[in-house]
Design brief:
Layout (H helix, E strand, L loop, with lengths): L2 H14 L2 E3 L10 H9 L12 H11 L3 E4 L7 H6 L4 E5 L2 H10 L4 E4 L11 E6 L10 H14 E12 L4 H8 L4 E7 L6 E11 L4 E10 L4 E10 L3 H10 L2 E7 L13 E8 L2
Parallel strand pairs: 1-10, 2-3, 2-5, 3-4, 5-6
Antiparallel strand pairs: 6-12, 7-8, 8-9, 9-10, 11-12
């Protein structure tokens, strides 16, 4: 099926559906039972959940115990690191995510906590903010609160790693302005209700740097569709680097992919390794 025809079909389905807004009553996207299935079957980037694991494992080997993961979700990264023998703590603001993580593994210390303001009474050799998780911090104030908490928990010789997609490429910016619905994921409902097809449409506010993404969850067998909006702040690489420096971090390395190649304007990722200023 060509891309144009696929877009037309998805657009037709979205416009004809009886949508039910569930933002105020709960989230499918951030439900621990659905979240893994959504991204295990992510349409846009196959094997998305495994792309950074080898890189972060190498970072753990390099910087050592103890390790703290911010916005750990259901344990995609924390569990493999713990299984390699590292002492890992994972925090997430979502109780559903933490509950799902606890069901998977007891090797990680799981804590329900906000990345903007946490107090674990421990310092870490490595703190990681992986794969776009920092984009959940929608304001500069949120980001600075997070950095303040990170500084309190980072050992003097420790490292802080932030990893995001580099949206500010020519192709990336074009996609941000193109708000047609597109296929996002498809999976079997964990409650046994049938097949869930997820489509998405995004609108980018250039002034606020906020991406408003609508996710449409359609239960095929029941002809029901639910919609919720997820918002992200798309930090520019230069902006993120400046904010780290301004908030007390020294930039050590800027990488453009998980093969550790240097960051350039066309790199798919912006991965920044920093430490506390002396």
């Amino acid at each position: 099926m060509n891309n144009k025809l696929e877009k037309q079909i998805i657009q037709s389905e979205v416009e004809s559906s009886n949508l039910i807004n569930i933002i105020d009553t709960g989230s499918i996207h951030y439900d621990g039972k659905h979240y893994d299935l959504i991204y295990d079957n992510f349409y846009l980037v196959p094997n998305l959940n495994k792309l950074d694991l080898a890189f972060l494992s190498d970072m753990a080997d390099q910087y050592g115990d103890a390790i703290l993961e911010l916005c750990c979700g259901t344990g995609r990264i924390a569990i493999p690191l713990a299984e390699k023998g590292w002492q890992v703590t994972g925090i997430d603001v979502s109780a559903s995510m933490i509950e799902a993580a606890k069901r998977k593994s007891s090797k990680v210390r799981w804590l329900e906590a906000d990345a903007r303001n946490f107090d674990i009474e421990e310092k870490f050799s490595l703190i990681i903010f992986p794969l776009n998780s920092i984009c959940h911090l929608l304001t500069i104030e949120d980001l600075e609160l997070c950095f303040h908490s990170v500084k309190k928990h980072l050992k003097p010789e420790g490292r802080f790693i932030v990893d995001t997609f580099n949206y500010y490429t020519e192709a990336g910016l074009k996609d941000l302005w193109d708000d047609y619905p597109y296929l996002y994921s498809a999976y079997q409902d964990p409650g046994g209700k049938g097949t869930v097809v997820v489509t998405a449409a995004a609108r980018f506010d250039l002034t606020e740097q906020i991406c408003h993404q609508k996710l449409f969850f359609k239960l095929i067998e029941h002809q029901k569709e639910f919609v919720e909006e997820v918002t992200y702040r798309l930090y520019h690489p230069n902006e993120l680097e400046a904010l780290l420096k301004y908030n007390g971090f020294a930039i050590e390395t800027k990488l453009g992919n998980y093969n550790k190649e240097p960051f350039t304007s066309s790199s798919p990722n912006f991965t920044i390794i920093s430490k506390l200023k002396e």
